[in-house]
Amino acid sequence: MPVVARAADQMQVGLIDSITDILLRLPQEKGWYAEQGLEVAFTPFDSAAKMVAPLAAGQLDAGSGAISAGLFNAVGRGLDVRIVADKGRNGAQFPWEALLIRKDLLDGGAVSSLADLKGRRIAVAAPGISTLSFLNQLAGHAGIPVESIGIEYLGFAQLAAALQNHAIDGAVGIEPYTTGIVRGGFAERFGNPHDFAPNAEGSVLLYGPSLLTTRRDVGRRFMKVYVRAAAYYMSAIEAGRLAGPRGEEIIAAMAEFMHAEPALVREMYPFAIGDGAHLDLASLGKDFDFFVAHKLIDTKVTLPDAIDETFLP
After folding, report:
1. Average pLDDT value for residue range 215-228
2. Are 203 and 177 in contact (CB under 8 A)?
3. What phi-psi label fits residue 65: left (phi over 0), alpha (psi between -120 and 50 degrees) or beta?
4. Is 287 exposed, middle or buried (0-12, 13-18, 19+ CB in 10 A)?
5. 3-class SS at 98?
6. pLDDT in tens, 17-61
7. Cα–Cα distance between 82 and 56 in angstroms, integer?
8. Which of 92, 47, 291 is nearest to 196 (CA)?
9. What is the DSSP letter of 67?
10. CA nearest to 298, candidates 135, 38, 72, 89
11. Does residue 2 register a pLDDT over 90?
12. At residue 5, does pLDDT exceed 60?
């Protein structure tokens, strides 16, 4: 009797064009999705905040990036969107999400401490995202109110030009943009983010209604691949850098999907990911509390309402 091949389960996944996307792209190169009977297509977005609506509408099965107040509001209104896994956090040796300050301000002494950010124009990727909580923690560490910092909203790809043209004084950037900006001489990293926002969750994996309800088996198979990729990636890091044969493999893969020189990728700070891709709930709690305190959440929702780690093996 002939064997009929089963059609692969198709998935649409949102990306933010960050180095953390290696956890989603590497399995495609390795054939790990195909092993699980999955066919995955990617769609780029400026931020995860812009993925919430298409996720809730079922246009995306999964998404990734910084958490947002909009995500919690969607959950509070009964929409099936959940944070399901870690996708990238800072650490003492992993400042992949960093504060950048214009080089001329640093060289001239106009900014010499975090307190000097008062009145400065600092860019973040989008309104209502966890980067604002990151800045709030920074401001608290500096002893200044976050409201004293002028917030500008710019996509990561716009930061280099804005810094070069002095349209902003600094930015919260992620790799690969941060290293490219530092390389260009427009700005420098300022301080270690782990000192004022320890283990800050810079990126998370999100599931939409199809994976949470009708296609849970697809969600479990996708997560199995994702956790495998996370472990593979972390095994390529030595002393806070991608190193060894596996590190070179990761560097080459990142360079290809980011259309960047391997030398640039080699300079970048890698991100950390929790053991088994589990979330840092303390970090997420700080972000949630910030959204509540600043009235960015207008629904009755709690942090646990928005989290579902049951897909993790």
Report:
1. 98
2. no
3. left
4. buried
5. strand
6. 889 999 999 999 999 999 999 999 999 987 888 899 999 999 999
7. 10
8. 92
9. -
10. 72
11. no
12. no
Place of tokens 């198979």: 221
Please report, as a single letter, which amino acid is at residue 307: I
Q: Quickly count: other Cβ atoms within 10 Å of residue 256's Cβ.
A: 13
Global pTM exceeds 0.70: yes
The per-residue DSSP string of 183-206 comes to HHTSEEE-S-HHHHSTT-EEEEEE
Task: List, in sequence order, the alpha helices (H) in 143-234.
Answer: 159-164, 177-184, 193-196, 209, 216-234
Q: Which two tokens stand for residue 75?
A: 């959950």
Homologous superfamily of 9-91+200-306 in CATH? Periplasmic binding protein-like II (3.40.190.10)
Q: Do domains 9-91+200-306 and 97-196 have the same CATH topology?
A: yes
What is the C-alpha to C-alpha distance for residues 67 and 79, in angstroms, rounded to an integer?
15
Torsion of CA 235, 237, 239, 241, to 10 degrees: 180
Given this model, what pLDDT does residue 4 score?
Answer: 45
